[in-house]
Recover the amino acids of this structure.
């Protein structure tokens, strides 16, 4: 017998009588609060080390980015409306390694979670999987109508969507491995800026 | 214990205990992490319901594991993931080596995986001439120090920043005497970026594998799993059979519990869902048993397979905090490790279920409600019955049995005992007394109960 069959046979022989799956409905209704989600997102997200801006439109985002980043640095945008930067679809066939010198990457997220500041981005939003990790800084744009209270509602919204890859990103890359002192900027972006559109 | 057994928990704890300020510091740091867990848990009114739900989901998983494994496999294959099965640690290691060898790859980058620690993968690959670099900062530090991780979530929690500074100075060229965590982290960032950009193979662990969709989830704060996996041409993920959860929506329960229990964060920075390989690249998943199916058959211990590896039971354990992770001489330390290890080798790990006060704190914090302290108590009985009682305990208990068997000797021993406590405490509070290592010795009463009773009778006359 192959290991696969051996393992499955051993598991089958040793698993005990049937236990039913619990219902998740109570949890999701319990946590479907009417809190001000933007306020909650801002509080939790900032505590997690993100910079959070409520903005009126894309022009306002550009203004902020102009102040933070010199025009000479390599910036890649996954958002059509922000067309002064290299559009990610135009470089998607380049080797992932070639993005090592990206200073800023700007992406769209269609789902944000107020309880933990996480933003859901799929491969479609990123185009290149490594981009939100390899860039020195990351900016994510989200509409406030796409915020949900907790992970329970987040997975309801994701439903059975198909994606090659997806990630919840909740802040800049960080570590506390050296004597538990929090250091921002481990291997991924040194900052996460979140722009909340109406 | 067998002759080839090395040091046991009390002996290893004694080594850690030589440096008292370090023990206090270790104790306080972990308690601080535990306190953060409490704050995070108290912020969610539904916390207990979440724990109960998670525990029930895992119950369902364990009762249907074979079906879920097959379902996961079929869906993963459908997604273009290549699935391998390994019955033992050796088989797991061989599969990985073969995958690398076939492609002529001799250098791999790895993110945190306690399963590969359990399988001693790094040592195995090193022997085959494969260079493995751990990319989680804590794991990189212990790797450079030539040590295993001492905690499943905080691998170098036992190390001071000055020691880490010395290691980095020697291996990564940081300035001598530099111990600022910010500067050391930046040094590691530069060094590991080079590694990520030059490795053709990346290995990661798996936090959750979803039967319904065939995808798997990896949680990190540093982003190292993603950097490695997205840049390499082949991504190998190692998972134990117990990592399965039935449906994607169940992640909404587990991801809410995992980091709140671990470090008090509401979620890790990255919770990455791998479903399909990138164009032109490969994802392989190795599904490992290595004793888990046996544990599934042990009714008293099967609940230990619910563990989501948050580390909360270690952070709260008074024995772990004061004895250090290495004293457990197994990949997963602390209370849960002490349940998992004897399943693999009862003789070698006979000491571990005794490395607990059975205070129940571990069970109280466990996000999936594993009855940890009850299982430790049950292991003790299994181990004693099987004849594997740790040596230190056997000696002490033999003495007890002998004393209790004769009232005369019992009285004499009591008197002598009290005399010793009073006038020669060093004779009791030293390593020669096997009980002392395990508990505070009580102060000697002025009178024994026997003496008091005899006097009382006399006075009444
Ligand atoms: S046994 Fe429970 S508390 Fe301990 S690591 Fe596992 S899930 Fe966490």
């Amino acid at each position: 017998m192959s290991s696969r069959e051996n393992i499955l046979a051993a598991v089958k022989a040793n698993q005990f009588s049937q236990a039913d799956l619990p219902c998740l409905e109570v949890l999701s209704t319990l946590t479907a609060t009417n809190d001000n989600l933007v306020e909650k997102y801002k509080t939790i997200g900032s505590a997690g080390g993100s910079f959070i801006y409520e903005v009126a439109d894309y022009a306002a985002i550009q203004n902020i980015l102009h102040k933070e980043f010199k025009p000479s640095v390599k910036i890649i945008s996954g958002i059509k409306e922000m067309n002064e930067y290299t559009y990610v679809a135009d470089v998607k066939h380049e080797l992932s390694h070639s993005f090592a010198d990206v200073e800023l990457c700007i992406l769209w997220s269609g789902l944000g979670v107020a309880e933990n500041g996480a933003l859901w981005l799929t491969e479609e939003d990123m185009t290149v999987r490594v981009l939100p990790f390899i860039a020195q800084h990351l900016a994510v744009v989200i509409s406030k109508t796409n915020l949900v209270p907790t992970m329970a509602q987040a997975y309801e919204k994701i439903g059975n969507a198909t994606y090659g890859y997806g990630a919840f990103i909740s802040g800049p890359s960080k570590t506390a491995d050296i004597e538990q002192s929090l250091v921002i900027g481990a291997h991924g972006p040194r900052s996460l800026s979140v722009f909340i559109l109406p | 214990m067998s002759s080839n057994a090395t040091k046991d928990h009390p002996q290893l704890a004694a080594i850690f205990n030589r440096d008292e300020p370090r023990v206090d510091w270790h104790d306080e740091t972990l308690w601080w992490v535990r306190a953060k867990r409490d704050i995070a848990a108290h912020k969610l009114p539904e916390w207990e319901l979440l724990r109960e739900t998670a525990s029930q989901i895992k119950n369902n998983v364990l009762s249907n594991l074979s079906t879920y494994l097959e379902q996961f496999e079929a869906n993963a294959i459908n997604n273009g993931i290549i699935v391998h099965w390994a019955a033992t640690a050796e088989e797991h290691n061989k599969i990985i080596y073969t995958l690398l060898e076939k492609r002529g790859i001799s250098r791999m980058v790895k993110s945190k995986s306690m399963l590969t620690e359990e399988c001693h993968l790094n040592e195995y690959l090193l022997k085959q001439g494969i260079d493995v670099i751990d990319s989680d900062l804590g794991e990189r530090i212990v790797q450079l120090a030539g040590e295993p991780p001492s905690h499943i979530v905080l691998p170098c929690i036992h190390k001071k920043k000055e020691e880490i500074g010395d290691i980095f100075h020697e291996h990564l060229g940081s300035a001598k005497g530099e111990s600022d965590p910010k500067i050391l982290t930046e040094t590691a960032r530069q060094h590991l970026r080079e590694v990520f950009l030059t490795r053709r193979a990346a290995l990661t662990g798996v936090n959750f594998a979803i039967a319904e969709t065939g995808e798997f989830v990896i949680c990190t704060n540093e982003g190292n799993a993603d950097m490695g996996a997205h840049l390499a041409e082949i991504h190998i993920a190692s998972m134990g059979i117990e990592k399965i959860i039935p449906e994607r929506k169940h992640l909404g329960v587990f991801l809410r519990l995992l980091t709140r229990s671990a470090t008090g964060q509401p979620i890790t920075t990255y919770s990455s869902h791998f479903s399909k390989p990138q164009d032109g690249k490969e994802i392989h998943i190795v599904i490992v048993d290595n004793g888990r199916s046996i544990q599934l058959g042990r009714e008293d211990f099967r609940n230990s397979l619910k563990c989501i590896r948050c580390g909360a039971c270690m952070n709260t354990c008074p024995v772990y905090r004061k004895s250090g992770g290495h004293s457990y001489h197994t990949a997963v330390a602390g209370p849960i490790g002490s349940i998992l290890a004897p399943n693999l080798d009862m003789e070698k790990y006979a000491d571990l279920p005794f490395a607990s006060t059975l205070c129940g704190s571990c069970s109280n914090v466990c996000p999936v409600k594993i009855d940890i302290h009850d299982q430790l108590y049950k292991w003790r009985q299994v181990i004693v019955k099987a004849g594997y009682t740790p040596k230190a305990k056997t000696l002490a208990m033999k003495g007890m049995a002998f004393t209790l068997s004769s009232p005369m000797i019992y009285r004499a021993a009591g008197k002598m005992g009290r005399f010793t406590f009073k006038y020669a405490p060093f004779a009791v509070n030293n390593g020669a007394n096997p009980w002392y290592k395990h508990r505070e010795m009580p102060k000697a009463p002025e009178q024994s109960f026997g003496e008091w009773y005899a006097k009382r009778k006399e006075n009444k006359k």
